[in-house]
Amino acid sequence: MSTTPHHDPDEFDAITAAADTDLTGAEVVDLEQARTRRAGRTPDTGDLIEPDDSDDETEDGPVPVDSLAAQRRPRFSLTAFRDAKRVAIIPSWLRSGAEFGRNAAWAAGFGVHALGFHAFRLPVYAVKLTVRAPRGFGRVCKAYGRWLLDLEGEPVRQSVVRAAIDKPDEARMYDRLSSKRDRRVRWRGMITLFLAVMFALAVGALWLAPATAQYTTLAALLVVLGYLGSPADKPLIGTAVVRQDAAPLTSIEVFTALASLGIAGINAAIRRGDNGKSWFPAPIGRENGVGWHCSVELPRGVVASAVVEKREELAAALTRPLGCVWPSVNGDVHPGRLELFVADKDMSRAKQRPFPLLKSGTVNLFKPQPFGTDPRGALVMITLMFASMIIGALPRFGKTFALRLALLIACLDPRSWILAFDLKGTGDLSPLEPVCHAYRAGDDEEDIEYLVTALREIHAEMRRRTKVIRELPRDLCPENKVTDELASNRKLGLHPIAIGIDECQRAFEHPKYGAEIEEICDDLVRRGPALGIMLKLATQRPDAKSLPTGISANAVLRLCLKVMGQTENDMVLGTSMYKNGVRATMFSRRDKGIGFLAGEGDEPVIVKTFEIDGPTAEVIVVRARAARERYGNITGHAAGVVLDTTAVRRDTILEDVAAVMAEAEPKLWSTVIVKRLTALRPDVYTGFTADQLREALKVHGLSTKQCWGEDIDTGETGNRKGFHRADILAAITKRDRSNGGGKTK
């Protein structure tokens, strides 16, 4: 079987001729003479040309070092067949039980629908047949009468009569025709008489037959006569399914579309006489029954990303809806390999398969879970464990829906903790509240304080986990990271933790706590995944300020919906993604919920996330909470615990530190200060750590310094990190001046 589609060469020649109509002043090359020169023969005589070894250059240009045979690609070779991709013997829909089941279910549903549609309309069909039966009887009688009287030959006989006026010899022709017609009518009359007798006998037999036979015969006659009496423009049976068949995709159509994009390399190849026959390394074929897949080997020097950038123009050239045309770069082959999928239906409008976890089931976050579908309708899986995630898009393109979907998947694992922070403040994440260890909606000062307090708790939890992992035996934790088995061991407390922050730029840009939030999130993104902590950030303004580079550079999973420019594209998907042809700028305004998902596989894929609205999310959360209650994992906010934000409020932190540092002790270690703070205000500083002290004072412009000191409780002396009392007092003075002499709230 040929691997390249064969088409009428005249069609290709017509296309290339049309592309060359505007070329004027170009140099015309005699290809026949060029070929004969390369073959070593004179163009006129065919005699061999003696080689000239004196110089590699001739008047006609350089002479190839290799022979023509050496330059020609071998058509058949063991290496080529060894590296070739084998086409599956059994189709994918037969190998996959799930896909076969879906197809069988669809076929059964289609049959039931069609049967029910026509069964419901049987009375209407009966009335139509009854009304149309007289017309059908008349048509039968008219047709039989024309046959009986041989009216089909009447026009011929009349033409002979008219011709006999000028040509008397035609009268004899008329006599012959009339004689044949008379014999034919007599013979048909005898047949009609016989049929009339048989009809009378049949009517008599039917008159004596049981009522069932009479009604059955009458119904059959009504069906036949009603069908014959139906007008051509008014069919008897209605249409149960209105089909909208998409036109097949052909190589000629693809070549014509690519030639119209105005790409310099493609235009140059066509001017050189390339008719596109060698552009298709594999036949164009159907894929999953929802569209056409085409691989295109673009001319040398043309990158597939140039075609991806012109997706809208390509769709117009193919005369298909924009949501049906999905070009991509096949980097596994080379940058010039274009993979084009043309769907039958617009992806943004096509009916999506239901979310597999919509009605039942729990998940294991250590395994891939359904997140959406690709343009071919296949499931796109995502592994949330061991990966932080960044979601970026313009407003109203499905960013919050995608974040909520990821958190919904996480909450269906009964072992997990969910922390949801809606800094947009509209309550889009509120359906998750019944299962959240921490939840907040809004970006007011107290909301940001709540966020900082929760993040500090998780940060401290991460440090605890590092110690637990470090001390576990090698046979239980061979890779020094949380495993499925360790997460299920409730004594270790290594359950998955999923943190979702919508509109994260509101937190990072906060004038008071932004630096601390950024530092904690940076550490969580770097070290958290191995310890079972997954941070998911969503923003509508992906730039270096709203999405710090240290965070964006270390996130594994990235979902980029519609964005406007290259900078935003690469901030979410990663550096050079735009250059490599992965461009979320190509999505249109109606492609809501559709974007590039990177980090799950080797190459980014286009995915349409499952659209779970608020009421549906609430139903899923009810099931998730029930599973957590059975598991015994209702904690924090879901259990009614109110998070204490007193420690994060910097109202008295400077004064308290100054109070525990006597004038005789101008320098103190951080650990000593924390001990004294705990003794000063146990209700506020119990559990307070040196790291928290450093972060608390950092917002006031203070940082730790090397201090020589002594811990009276332990008797230890040495040079450790701490604070100077003079710096604390200076910070108090600076703060009071900036606030008009009052304290910060």
TrEMBL record:
<dbReference type="InterPro" id="IPR027417">
    <property type="entry name" value="P-loop_NTPase"/>
</dbReference>
<dbReference type="GO" id="GO:0051301">
    <property type="term" value="P:cell division"/>
</dbReference>
<keyword id="KW-0131">Cell cycle</keyword>
<keyword id="KW-0132">Cell division</keyword>
<feature type="compositionally biased region" description="Low complexity">
    <location>
        <begin position="14"/>
        <end position="26"/>
    </location>
</feature>
<feature type="region of interest" description="Disordered">
    <location>
        <begin position="1"/>
        <end position="69"/>
    </location>
</feature>
<keyword id="KW-1133">Transmembrane helix</keyword>
<keyword id="KW-0812">Transmembrane</keyword>
<feature type="compositionally biased region" description="Acidic residues">
    <location>
        <begin position="47"/>
        <end position="60"/>
    </location>
</feature>
<feature type="transmembrane region" description="Helical">
    <location>
        <begin position="252"/>
        <end position="270"/>
    </location>
</feature>
<dbReference type="InterPro" id="IPR050206">
    <property type="entry name" value="FtsK/SpoIIIE/SftA"/>
</dbReference>
<feature type="transmembrane region" description="Helical">
    <location>
        <begin position="377"/>
        <end position="394"/>
    </location>
</feature>
<feature type="transmembrane region" description="Helical">
    <location>
        <begin position="190"/>
        <end position="209"/>
    </location>
</feature>
<protein>
    <submittedName>
        <fullName>Cell division protein FtsK</fullName>
    </submittedName>
</protein>
<keyword id="KW-0472">Membrane</keyword>
